[in-house]
Amino acid sequence: EPKPDPTTAPKPDPTPEPKPDPTNAPKPDPTPDPAEECDSSTSGYSKALHLSLLFYEAQRSGKLPADQRVTWRKDSALDDLIPGGYYDAGDYVKFGFPMAATTTMAAWGAVEYKSGFVKACEWENLKSMIKWATDYFIAAHTDTNEFVGQIGNGGLDHAYWGRPEDMTMERPAYKISASAPGSDLAGETAAALAAASIIFDEDDPEYAEKCLQHAKELYSFANTYRGKYSDSIPDAANYYKSWNGYMDELAWGAVWLYRATDETSYLELAKQFAESLDDPSELSWDDKGAGVFILLASITKESRYIEKATSFCDEIFTDTPRTQDGLVFIQQWGSLRHASNVAFACLCAEDNGALTTSYRADAKRQIDYILGENSKGFNYQIGYGDSYPLRPHHASSSCPTTGPCGWDQFNSPDPNPQVLEGALVGGPKSNDDNSYTDSRQDYVTNEVTTDYNAGFQSALAALIA
Question: Between residues 160 and 2, which one has the greater pLDDT?
Fold first, then answer.
């Protein structure tokens, strides 16, 4: 069955106060790494990568920094138990599980393809994107065996359509603990922090060590107190239920801790947990099995893992239905996200000697489809090229710069007043290219989420590198 990804219903928001924003245009990017030559192209993969990182700035919760480039967004949710982090999608819940999965996927791309980000002049922006999440995870790790896994109630949040700056509804915080465990959530957050520690090790070793210490503690918590987080945080089960259980996150967290520490005990744990994993048919916020097999194949070069990695890419690119224009169609929720995730994973596997068959052309085809190489000439990333989604299911960008914002804006046929630059929409909801609609009311094809962009962004870096 399709997994009920992020939002299943329109998300309402409170009545906003008018907020005159000086400009709706992003501020110029910070200066790129002075030691590196880079090309901030106005088209192509570098442009798409630049836009994707802008999207994450539009999703920021908390007090925004002085160098915030998306200036129609302002400070919001400052009274959350843990301020900061990212709003999940078109709504304002901070769902910890997909936020962590997003961060790991984005960090994986950065670890493997730093040169891609550097060539596109985006390395500093990538580090800012990762750190906005890891700062939040560190603050949410409120005790050794305690982690705040969600802020905001799905029902209360989705009854509101408006700006996050104007929210007045209650925003409860939900924790996992030794008595209410969440091995999947804690294991995934450990993976995110371990991967981030590799990124920051060179420029900020003190912060890298902080990330790693929290990763180790969270992994121990995940492994010691076993349970599905969506059983401990029932509200999350309505949106991001842990369908796949937690063994994949225990393997995933261990393999990333091995990469960050070189401690063989973590590699042995990863191998042990990998034994219990089924053959994956997707790579997603819920199912990390393909990532586990690809990393184990890359690290160990053992034939059993290379066979698993190859089998996964074989199934995706030879047996999975495609649209008329060549999009691999895995499932209706976030079909472009799924195609991007497998494109990135199989590019990474091939580049690391983890495949016996090349699928580079197939992987590249998925990203090119998203960026307009389809019969419609339509770009599914907002702001890329001339023809792209104008009405994403996304509350804050549907609001005018000043004046009221509410359900009238949700129901309006007009384009969103703020261009949500860089966001990847859900995409076709069947293996028919015509099943996509640019409608704010269609949260299957036209919602955006932080998770949708992560593998896409990493695939872009792989193709630039």
Answer: 160
